[in-house]
Please model this.
Amino acid sequence: MSGPPRLFDRALHRRRLDRAAKGYAGFLKRRAAEDLVERLAAVRRDFPVAVDLGARDGAFARALAASDAAAKVGLLVETDLSAAMLAGRAGARLVADEERLPFAPESLDLVVSSLALHWTNDFVGALIQIRQALKPDGLFLAAMLGGSTLTELRAALTAAELELSSGAGPRVSPFADAFDAAGLLQRAGFALPVTDIDRVTVRYDHALALMADLRAMGETSVLVEGVGRPLTRPLIARAAEIYAERFAGPDGRIAATFEILALTGWAPHASQPRPLARGSAKMRLADALHSRERSAGEKAGE
Model:
């Protein structure tokens, strides 16, 4: 039986993260991490053992330390695919692949992840591993890039490649949308799944500045299909021209969209609310709405 398709070159992704660690551009990571901390602060319980998957520069740990929510968390273990990202920081740290988690079943109270899981080849498999590592009624909080991310760059690169060559392939990673993410949480066995969206527009002087930021984030494409098809200087130059033509504002600066999906799910537990069994309602909907129930085929006004 074959596994999930291999979309991403994870070894290449690790090397890109190692490179980015030398001058990490963490403004999106910081925004996502601060949002996760706010969500955690609203939960009325403690989490003795927590893990931050894809910690990168430690944005979640810093945001947590500056929040009242810090009192809720005991041990926080930071993990990352890149050892370079974890180097030089205090605290519990572990080099770990989000696709092959090293945690024992039911050993964690809380798992958080900000802007890392969208690079997994088997996202549902990663979610299942997270759910299995959580204790019953353990909490999962995550932020990941969603479907509208970098739509402008995707369009500019595709148009430039079609213009300069005989065809165009994917140059920007595919991202899940909020509806897909909620369904995948359920598929992985999480209870009470919730997703919502934070859309961020970042403005740059030109497309090359955007590309430099993506490089410094470790977010440049590692699509397997794109390996061996380097971005040439003529392609980059033409894509930058098209980007400016289509997406520049009155001030000449270009817009780059980042869509951040926030995901919440709980490891199942008997104490959690459950939907009533079919047919167990004590009142008819028509009575609750103070309306007259009509039989099938009956027209209004008859």
Remarks:
- The chain has a mean pLDDT of 89.
- The beta strands are 47-53, 73-80, 92-95, 108-114, 134-145, 191-204, 254-266.
